[in-house]
Write a structure and sequence with these properties.
The protein is mainly alpha-helical. The chain has eleven helices and no strands. It has one domain: Mitochondrial carrier fold (Alpha/alpha barrel). Helix 1 packs across helix 4 and helix 5 packs across helix 6. The model has no long low-confidence stretch (mean pLDDT 94). Bound molecules: 2-acetamido-2-deoxy-beta-D-glucopyranose. The site of 2-acetamido-2-deoxy-beta-D-glucopyranose has 10 residues, from loops.
Length: 310
């Protein structure tokens, strides 16, 4: 096993690698979610017509730079989220398992899922300001703008401007929706993964190995995206607002469905799927490699006494 610090670094590198590959789809997703906000279907102008069209027009008008807007925030967000998951998961799991079973080594799916969701929610809350700035950077476009156009030069410039104008409350705008979104996503991920794995083994006779992991995480990715997308759309819209278009995340949901129809909460779904599927698969396979490298590095360079402290 790598040390906790080592696991944190290895996990961070893997997550950032996956983010780099999938960030373009995230940009398209946000623009799709925001376009036509609170307009009836007939009135809404469709500047972006879908995932591939979105990638194409952004590339044509803004170049690669347009697709990668907000990537610095995306990295920081991933590192913070990853850190909270690593830091809170085990203590929460151990505490609960000891309370319920009197033995911290018992593995209970229910408790594991709960601990995963709780540590994810804590991470989402801590890192929300970065997701906020990311959303605003990604919706900015000098050619086909959707959403409020904020002129932030980069993440820190964005954070500074929000703090100066609106104070800490401004930085935590939309944090409720962000917590719900991540809570939904994290709680279905593990159970659907194991469920898919069992079915694949039982019905298709698949065996333990990379192919089974790939198939199970793809199946789980579909479900995660279905559950997580509606609160994700609400979150994007809460992050866009600077005035007070919506009183709360729930108000946003009601107004969205009322004016744009039920399917509005699934705007940008395919772009989200295009991000989530490769993200999950890449994170898992990259993490295996970076963990291996980290272990080799630690074996070679760290003394035993130092390893115990990290
Ligand atoms: C974004 O937020 C502003 C209010 O701050 C609102 O006027 C606008 O309709 C929202 N959505 C879009 C797509 O611009």
């Amino acid at each position: 096993m790598a040390t906790t610090t080592g696991a944190f670094i290895a996990g961070g590198i893997a997550a950032c690698g996956a983010v780099t590959v999938t960030h373009s789809f995230e940009t398209v997703k946000i623009r799709l979610q925001l376009q036509g906000e609170l307009q009836s279907k007939g009135d809404a102008v469709k500047k972006y017509r879908g995932v591939l069209h979105g990638v194409k027009v952004i590339l044509q008008n803004e170049g690669a730079r347009g697709l990668f807007r907000g990537i610095d925030s995306a990295y920081i967000y991933q590192i913070l989220l990853n850190g909270c998951r690593l830091g809170f998961y085990e203590p929460i799991r151990k505490g609960l398992t000891t309370t319920v079973y009197d033995d911290p080594s018992v593995q209970s799916l229910g408790i594991n899922v709960f601990s995963g969701a709780t540590s994810g929610i804590i991470g989402a809350a801590c890192a929300s300001p970065f997701f906020l700035v990311k959303t605003r950077l990604q919706s900015y476009s000098p050619f086909l703008p959707v959403g409020t156009q904020h002129q932030y030069r980069n993440s820190f410039d964005g954070l500074r401007k929000i703090y100066t104008a609106e104070g800490a409350g401004g930085l935590y705008r939309g944090v409720g929706a962000a917590m719900v979104r991540t809570g939904f996503g994290s709680s279905v991920q593990l159970p659907t993964y194991f469920f898919a794995k069992r079915r694949l083994v039982k019905h298709l006779g698949m065996e333990e190995g990379p192919a089974l992991h790939l198939a199970s995480s793809t199946a789980s990715g579909f479900v995660v995206c279905c559950v997580m997308h509606p609160p994700d759309t609400i979150m994007s819209r809460m992050y866009n607002q600077t005035g007070n278009l919506y009183k709360s995340a729930f108000d946003c949901l009601l107004q969205t469905v009322r004016t744009e129809g039920m399917l509005a909460i699934y705007k940008g779904y395919f772009a989200h799927l295009a991000r989530i599927l490769p993200h999950t698969i890449l994170t898992l396979s990259l993490a295996e490699q970076t963990n291996k490298l980290m272990r080799r590095f630690e074996d070679r360079w760290l003394s035993d006494s130092l390893r115990e402290k990290l």
